[in-house]
Amino acid sequence: MNVTIEPSWKAKLENEFEQPYFQKLTQFVKQEYRNHTCYPKGQDIFAAFDHCPFYGTKVVIIGQDPYHGPDQANGLCFSVKDGIPHPPSLVNIFKEIKTDVEQPYPKSGNLERWAQQGVLLLNATLTVRAHQAGSHQKKGWEQFTNAVIRTVSMQQEGVVFLLWGGFAKKKASLIDQSKHHILTSGHPSPLSANRGLWFGNQHFSKTNQLLAQMGKPLISW
């Protein structure tokens, strides 16, 4: 099956695309997009990879599901298209950046600028039916994105993984902690942030400190 994805990732994930589970997943996704409104747009399903080539990946942020409201999801976790109001989790991410690295609160919630600097913004499930959170979970996407995390872990060194919330923290078992860095905290959603589990984690400055120690370019958050 022909998957349109950035060439360096395509080479690394070729075996996954040939697996029976992925063939089945593809049929499911095609049918869903034919019969229902789904997000993100078809050409944006693999946008996280398209904006962040394999060998340029320095940081991985793991989300759960794409946004399921109109025109929000753009294929990168936590990110929305230009001009779209910022969802609550993204608001809290930007507030933490403002206090942590003293960056002004940005106008656009489009995080493609992070991806282009080497931040892989990976949702565990890459598609969703409109207004139905979690509707495409347990159809095969998680198996695919777990393979992505394992591939980065095995074939890269010194990647900083940011695991926010219980769901993301479970992915730590896929990561070789002897050669990568893992930072964990509560989720930026209001539920978690208002309980004091998000603000003050300083993940953005800590990530840049780790990158600096490894002699890698810093991320302009």
Task: Give a brief description.
The chain is α/β, with parallel strands linked by helices.
Q: Any overview of this molecule?
A:
The protein has 221 residues and is of the alpha/beta class. The protein has nine helices and six strands, in the order H-H-E-H-E-H-H-E-E-H-E-H-E-H-H. A four-stranded parallel sheet has the order 3-2-5-6. It is globular and about 45 Å long. The longest helix is centred in the first third of the chain and has 16 residues. The chain starts with 6 loop residues before the first helix and ends in an 8-residue tail after the last helix. Its EC number is 3.2.2.27. It is found in: Cytoplasm. One of its GO terms (molecular function) is uracil DNA N-glycosylase activity.
Helicity level = 25-40%
What is the CATH third-level topology name?
Uracil-DNA Glycosylase, subunit E
In whole angstroms, the N-to-C terminal distance is 36 Å
- Could you report the average pLDDT, rounded to the nearest whole number? 96
Oligomeric grouping of the chains: single chain
Low-confidence stretches: none
Percent of sequence in beta strands: 5-15%
Calculate Rg over CA atoms: 17 Å
Number of helices: 9
Please state the second-level CATH architecture.
Answer: 3-Layer(aba) Sandwich
Counting DSSP E segments of at least 2 residues, the number of strands comes to 6
Q: Could you say which overall geometry the principal axes of the C-alpha atoms support? A: globular
CATH homologous superfamily label: Uracil-DNA glycosylase-like domain
Number of domains: 1
CATH class equals: Alpha Beta
Keywords: Cytoplasm, DNA damage, DNA repair, Hydrolase
Domain Uracil-DNA glycosylase-like: 50-211
Enzyme class: hydrolase
InterPro entries: UDG_fam1, Ura-DNA_Glyclase_AS, Uracil-DNA_glycosylase-like, Uracil-DNA_glycosylase-like_sf
